[in-house]
Amino acid sequence: MSLLITLTVFLPAPLIIHVPSKNQTKLANGETEVHHRPKRGWIWNQFFVLEEHLGPEAQYVGKLHSNSDKGDGSVRYILSGDGAGTIFIIDEVTGDIHATKSLDRERKAHYVLHAQALDRNTEDALEPKSEFIIKVQDINDNPPKFPDGPFVATVPEMSELGTSVLQVTASDADDPTYGNSARIVYSILQGQPYFSVDPKTGIIRTALSDMDREAREHYTVVIQAKDMAGQVGGLSGSTTINITLTDVNDNPPMFPQSLYVPESAQVGKPVGKIKANDEDLGVNADIKYSIINSEGANTFSISSERDTREGVVSLKKPLNYERKKSYTLHIEGTNTHVDPRFSYLGSFKDTATLKITVGDVDEAPVFSIDHYIMDVYENSPGGTEVGVVTARDPDSRNSPVRYYLDSKEEGMRYFRIDEGSGLIRTTRPLDREDASWHNITVMASEVDSPSLLSHVPVTVQVLDVNDNPPEIATDEEVIVCESSRPGQVIQTVTAVDKDDFANGQRFSFALPSLLPVNPNFTLKDNEDNTASIIARRRRFNHLTQDLYELPIVVRDGGEPSLSGTSTLTLRVCPCQSHGRVRMCQGEAFLSSAGLSTGALIAILLCIVILLAIVVLFITLRRSKKEPLIISEEDIRENVVTYDDEGGGEEDTEAFDIIALRNPKNKLYICLLHPRSPFLVRCCMKGVHDSMNHPDAQ
Q1: Tell me, what is one Gene Ontology molecular-function annotation carried by this entry (predicted)?
Q2: CA 566, 569, 570: angle at the middle one, nearest 5?
């Protein structure tokens, strides 16, 4: 019976070796009989599990299996040791081992565990405990680090090429025995061309010979360490080394005084001092300094400092190390208060020579011109070349230059630049009608010193192509008088085009050729970018038809020529003499509101009736209250009177008055009760009878 552990993913299967042991028994004949009893022995290899496992499920490690396990669940497997039950769990039935947590090799590199198989019913051990090791397999999750950085180093000036300066060493917490996770390669990010680094050892050496401390004393070098043997995807770390050139005796003694001035010195600022000795005191020792040679006076100036009696040398013009590396100044010092009694002693002035050495300073790249103007045609596909900007390193080492676009500007959406060549291309088609000019800023930096930047503005003009058809310039209705005559000009129209003058200001006009001849109007091209609408018949009537539509085809003179069709609306209106429009606005209002004239009159009548009812109702409510039953005696008081005037002769002619004088004819008089307008009482009387006539009703 044996306990077998199999690891199927990362773990090689353990070896089970049965080693026979010899038991000897002496026989009667003196021979020895050897009995072989099998003895079980375990030899375990190292097993591996991957660190930093981030999967949603527990990581499978391996499987325990006993020879006595028949698959009926009678065997129970248990684990003990490092992380058992917390990090590593086992399925008691199947013997599968899983890692439930993400492991970190840098915290714990391996785990010692014990495996055992027990009888589930009796809890007796079917196998003795077996020890095995699970080793955490490394992944590249730690970048190289320089624990001792930043560094300070020195090297003598004028050292030979390849002189060792300092060795830097980076450490990587990953496993150096597995893969390339901890295999580090060194490179230099900043400090070329003065220094170099050995990619394997990290030793920094001088890359130029004869580096002069008097010209430049301090250098900053940035070293990068990258694991995975420098391959893509490796992690990296960097450190800074400040290197100072120490002095050696490389300059013989010289009597003339000298100054070191970096080429980056600002104009107008002091760059050094010089002093002439005068043993007198007070005002007798005052000295006025001046530069007497043109080479020095053109670039430098000198002033006297009264308290210290020194001459302060200042810069008048910018310095350029690449153009001129040194200047010689002849300086004269003269007493300002000369006592004539001692003129025989001399001129009371002296001259000295001051040598100024210009120091080289790492300068930002310089563009060939201060402002670039480029152009590109609209609608050109993305990737079209626009132009090239050029910058160079003004320093003597002439480092390569990289180009960038300012990411803060909107131009990044439309343009991109090649880092190496400075070639600007479009990223998408441009539309001149949206934006005819684009302003972008190009930045340039040295490859060795990316912190030094220079900027240049670039203006890109979008050139026009004929991509917009012309159209009639107005959308307003054209007024046609009812009295228009054949051949009369109704209106002159013009066209507009979004394209520029070259393509958008030469127009021709015509009626659509595919439509039948318009019987009402025609069009005349005036050949001056205008066209006249002309009536073809007389006597238009707005009651018969008040609206006409006239499509007009406009063609421009571009290459290729484009055309567009605009439809004008012509409204017929009554006009007074001289063509002055009458009533068109009101009718236009009704038309725009969607109401006919009859509908409007009906609405107004309804409003008047409603107002009359309201006035009548208010009047009746204010009238005096009276009983609803009218007595016979009050009939005469209920006569309704009217103040309407007669029509005069028209009334006498319209009616036969003789009929009214006939006593046989009876007049019906209807009386309205003031409190109830719906109760009507009528009486019938003759014209000449009184109100008390017996026949009155």
Answers
A1: beta-catenin binding
A2: 130
Residues with Cβ within 8 Å of 606's Cβ and at least 6 positions away in sequence, in order, are: none
* Residues making up the chain, counted from first to last: 697
Q: How many CA atoms lie within 13 A of 365 on its CB side?
A: 29
- Give the span between the Cα atoms of 632 and 636, in whole angstroms: 9
Contact call for residues 296 and 313 (beta carbons, < 8 A): no
Q: What is the mean pLDDT of residues 87-107?
A: 82
What is the C-alpha separation between 22 and 36, in angstroms, rounded?
Answer: 5
Backbone Cα Rg of the chain: 57
Distance from C-alpha of 513 to C-alpha of 535, rounded to nearest angstrom: 18
State how far the Cα of 166 lies from the Cα of 219, in Å rounded to an integer.
14
> pLDDT per residue over 441-489, tens digit each?
999 998 877 888 899 999 999 988 887 888 888 777 888 888 888 988 9
**Quick check: bond before 560 cis, omega within 30?**
yes
Averaged over 634-661, what is the pLDDT? 47
181 and 138 Cβ atoms separated by less than 8 Å: yes
- Which run of H or E residues covers position 21? strand 15-26
Which strand (E) or helix (H) includes residue 684? strand 680-686
Which pair of tokens denotes residue 484?
């228009």
Cα 121 to Cα 670: distance, rounded to the nearest angstrom = 125
Give the three-state DSSP class for 369. coil
In angstroms, the CA 306 to CA 310 distance is 7
DSSP string, 377-424: ETTPPTT-EEEE--EE--STT---EEEEE-TTSGGGGTEEE-TTT-EE
For residues 295-332, one letter each, b for 16 or more C-beta atoms within 10 angstroms of the residue's C-beta and e for the rest, the string is ebeebbbbebeeeebbbbbbbeeebebeeebebebbbb
Largest CA distance in the chain: 190
Residues 371, 455: Cα–Cα separation, whole Å? 10
Phi and psi, residue 457, nearest 5°: -80, 140
pLDDT in tens, 361-412: 878 888 999 999 999 998 899 999 999 999 988 877 778 899 999 888 877 8
For residue 484, the one-letter residue type is S
Q: Which of 274, 268, 307 is nearest to 290 (CA)?
A: 274
Rounded Cα distance between 571 and 484, Å, is 12
**For the segment 522-576, what is each residue's pLDDT rounded down to a tens digit?**
999 888 889 999 999 888 888 888 899 889 998 887 777 888 888 889 899 888 6
Bond before 394 cis per omega within 30 degrees: no
The verdict on whether omega for the bond into residue 150 sits within 30 degrees of 0, i.e. cis, is yes
What does the block give as tokens for 83?
Answer: 């992380």
Closest CA to 251 of 213, 217, 218, 219: 213
How far is the C-alpha of 591 from the C-alpha of 587, rounded, in Å? 6
